[in-house]
Amino acid sequence: MRNFKLILQYEGTRYQGWQRQESTGNTIQGKLEALLVKMTGAPVQVQGAGRTDAGVHALGQTANFHARTALSCEEILCYMNRYLPEDIAVISVEEAPARFHSRLNAAGKIYRYRVMNTEIPHIFDRRYVYEFPARLDIAAMRAAAGLLTGTHDFCAFTSAKKGKKSTVRTLYEIKIERLGDEVDLTYKGDGFLYHMVRILTGTLLAVGTGEKRPEDMTDILERGAREYAGELVPAKGLTLMEVCYHSGSFYEDKGIW
User: Fold this and answer.
1) Among 31, 49, 63, 143, which residue's CB has the most CB atoms within a 10 Å radius?
2) Is the distance from CB of 153 to CB of 171 less than 8 angstroms?
């Protein structure tokens, strides 16, 4: 049984997220598995590094699957891109060690949230940005982001119900950049909770408008209750940029991973 590692891109607009669902075949995982069954003639389970929500996009999702096939990696790449929908693409295919698991072996992820900060519609970007015309204090947002960076219990920044699993995560960096009408928020961390990036973004936007203060971030983290954080912003502004691994990861030269 061979193990194949995939790097994927997809526009999440019309999909019900990454994870396979019994009620619909309209998920990224579902589309991939249906195609690979046709390619191999046997059931195939695709493991994704991140379970992106409905409407969330990916530029660098990582996945893997095990299969018995004589096809080369190049042949698999060509086959998949020939038959996948036009809004899903496989960027690379390579054979991985038998024990490689795209999610369990991931050292971290990089997400980007795009905010179009203008009253003028940007028609060709409308599927990938959150239109937020209110004036933003970028300096205040950066100050708040600095207080959120590091290792914390982020239970106030998730929509998931409280359970036994740890809600402690490490954010290595939150970078906030203004590029003309657009404000980009890039999050680099060892892992992210359900809706975490979208709630962090909603909280930082509340700081940008003056609804919250940068120093409120410490209080929100300490209280640990969802109602103290900001709004859950729309999925369409969020993109999974990269999944990082200890070997050859984005941070390897920086001594972080």
Assistant:
1) 49
2) no
The string over 45-72, giving b where at least 16 C-beta atoms fall within 10 Å of a residue's C-beta and e elsewhere, is ebbbbbebbbbbbbebbbbbbebebebe
For the chain, the domains span: 2-96, 108-254
CATH of 108-254 among 3.40.30.10, 3.20.110.20, 3.30.70.660, 3.40.50.300: 3.30.70.660
The single residue of 53, 137, 153, 253 carrying the catalytic annotation is 53
Residue 236 has pLDDT above 90, yes or no: yes
- At 113, list the tokens: 């949230």
Amino acid at 7: I
Residue 160's pLDDT band, with cuts at 50, 70 and 90, is confident
Q: Under a CB-based contact definition with an 8 Å cutoff, are residues 93 and 4 in contact?
A: yes
Q: Which CATH architecture has domain 2-96?
A: 2-Layer Sandwich (3.30)
Spatial contact of 36 and 44, defined as CB atoms under 8 Å apart: yes
Assess whether 125 carries a catalytic annotation. Answer: no
Q: What is the value of pTM for the model shown?
A: 0.93
Give the position of tokens 């999610």.
103
State both tokens at 101: 């698991």
